[in-house]
Amino acid sequence: EVLQNHVLEAKVFHTEYGTGVAILTGAHRFSLTTNIDDLKLRRMPEVPGLQKPPSCWAVLSQDRVTIVLLAVGQDLYLLDNTSCSVVVSEPWGSAVGEKLCEFSSSVRAPPKQMVWCMRPRSRQRAVVVAWDRQLMVVGNSPETVPQDGASTGSPGVPELPAGEQLAAGAGLVPGPGQPLTCSPVPAEASLEIFKIASMAPGALLLEAQKEYEKESQKADEYLREIKDQKLLPEAVSQCIEAASYEHEPDTQKSLLRAASFGKCFIDKFPPESFVRMCQDLRVLNAIRDYQIGIPLTFTQYKRLTIEVLLDRICEYLRLSEIQGVSRILAHWACYKVR
């Protein structure tokens, strides 16, 4: 069937068996495998009267059972191993128990994508809705958190200049004259290091450090290649810079380990940039924690400065009337990161 009708769409999912893949063919039939390492393609039951691709579909896996959930018009279908069943066969507006919330986005165009999201160890669900130039987080209340300057039309949501909505979502609305700029900065160092088959100095240094941990002679080969081109200082700087763009602590540590490994082979490499990056990432990772909820990028953090960040935290906690409290906290924070 795949050879005759081709694959219209595919989705990757994860189960206790491993990584699975589900496909929708040109005949509007679904097939899936729950483990690509042990490839056994299973054909799902046919959806009655399906003459065109569903408006959206997803793969759900729980308790060793994998099903396909799909929407056709105003109907919702579940496909399991043996049958196709209708979940909703009435208009969404009158479906009891199916509605999370209602809100007005003031956007006429339908969204490009909607994705469930949930904080770690939390039962509160929300939906992220994306258009071409707007992103909105919708929860089980009439309020929404937009991620650009467009008005949501929802009560209780202040209109802020572009880039300040991110801090508003964390309850830290920037004060007048101190905008939190959110203009995207290309993460060139990260792109250079992590792109496929990259030969960038930072990519080679990262591989050298990984091979060194494995006690492999390949570490010396990678390192020699960088040193022969006299690019070792650039490789170290590239790894340090790339760490600032990454949000996963494990990736940050991997890049910083590579930078630390590389600077051991450089005479009199100035340590200030490496030390400062370690300090900045400790602060960023702390405020990005879901219990704090301030997802600043490195660029935002540097433009905001730690003094302004602490000042806004004090303002949010209504501590601003205590004279000098933000300065005290700033000195304390600088002391702690050292």
UniProtKB/TrEMBL annotation:
One Pfam family, please name it: Vps16_N
Lineage top rank: taxon: Eukaryota
Which intervals hold domain Vps16 N-terminal? 1-89, 97-146, 189-276
Q: Which UniProt keywords apply?
A: Coiled coil
What GO molecular function annotations does the UniProt record carry, in alphabetical order? Answer: actin binding
Per the record, the coiled-coil ranges are 205-232
What InterPro entries does this protein's entry cite?
Answer: VPS16, Vps16_N
Does the keyword Coiled coil feature in the UniProt annotation?
yes
| GO cellular component term, pick one | HOPS complex
One GO term (biological process): endosomal transport
Q: Fetch the PANTHER family from UniProt.
A: VACUOLAR PROTEIN SORTING VPS16, VACUOLAR PROTEIN SORTING-ASSOCIATED PROTEIN 16 HOMOLOG
User: What is the protein name stated in its UniProt record?
Assistant: VPS16 protein
Phylogenetic classification of the source organism? Eukaryota, Metazoa, Chordata, Craniata, Vertebrata
